[in-house]
Amino acid sequence: PQYQYILKLFFDPE
Amino acid sequence: MLEGKFEEASLLKKIVEAMKDCVSSCNFNCTENGISVQAVDNSRVLLISLLIEKDTFEEYRCDRNITLGVGLGSLSKIIGNGANSDYLTISADDDADKLNIIFEDKVKDKISEYNLKLLDIDADLLDVGPMDTDATITLPSADFAKICKDMKVLSESLQIIVTKDSALFQSVGDIGTGNIVIRPKTDIDHPEESVTISLDKPIDLSFGSKYLSDIIKATSLSQKVTIKLTDQSPGVFEYKLPSGYLRFYLAPKFDE
Fold it and tell me: Measured between CB atoms, does A4 come within 8 Å of chain B?
């Protein structure tokens, strides 16, 4: 199955 | 004091229509260079970045940086009252609690004035810096909208696979599968129909169809859309304004 990344993982790694 | 006059109300109408189903409210950040917005949808998957540069306006002044918290549904209702061809002027005093909206009919001697109550929006911003791009596709925005709509009937995901000479849009669902391939094409007589693909690295990414449905609401803003894709990174979908842009950053899906 596929899961959805959220943007925070890419733009705000802290 | 902020004052911005649009040559045609239709431009702001299209911008608001493209944004209001993703985000219910957002801050309009006004500076001497123009107006910008960054807003993220409730599920934190889709980010909107809007820049309306000063040159977009017939007349523009902003004496001091101000932030206007706007409910997009409410703004949409009010600007829906003006005709597309009207002049539309938005203005606000420094520290204002309302946005003044004036329509001027270009033929009749008619001026309509509205006030929109502003909101206090506490939004946390994401640090979206310049991104590397592995593949860039530019195609007619209407074609991209149709691809997204057609593929959505099959699956809640749309897979985009880009190779040197083609972009493949693929959906695999319970009822069946769909594939649409586009290739680069130069149309000298109708440049807006051209398709370009530039590639540094092959791409295979999946995106949620429901978010793509929101993105393609911007189709009327520009005849072309530019899609920038990078391996395991958000896709960027850009609709150019006469001076500025409306960009969507969409987080990809990943396999277990």
Answer: yes
Burial B117-151 (b: 16+ CB within 10 A, else e): ebbebeeeebebeeeebbbbbbbbbbbbbebbeeb
Q: Is B60 exposed, middle or buried (0-12, 13-18, 19+ CB in 10 A)?
A: buried
Instruction: Evaluate whether B247 touches B150 at the Cβ level (below 8 Å).
Output: no
CA distance B86 to B133: 39
Measured at the CA of B163, the angle between CA B157 and CA B167, to 5 degrees, comes to 50
Question: Band of the pLDDT at A14, cuts 50, 70, 90?
Answer: low
Which pLDDT tens digit goes with each residue over B164-196? 889 999 999 999 999 999 999 998 999 889 999
Encoded tokens for B72: 């997009």
Q: For residues B18 and B254, what is the distance between their CA atoms, to the nearest angstrom?
A: 26
Residues of B in contact with A11 (CB under 8 A): 47, 126-128, 234, 249
CA distance between the termini of chain B: 52
CA end-to-end distance (rounded Å), chain A: 27
Which residues of chain B approach chain A closer than 8 Å at the C-beta? 40, 43-47, 126-128, 157, 206, 208, 233-234, 249, 251-256
Low-confidence residues in chain B, pLDDT < 70: none
B235 burial via Cβ count (<10 Å: 0-12, 13-18, 19+): buried
Distances (CA, A) of B134 to B116, B162, B181, B228: 43, 10, 19, 8
Residue type (1 letter), B20: K
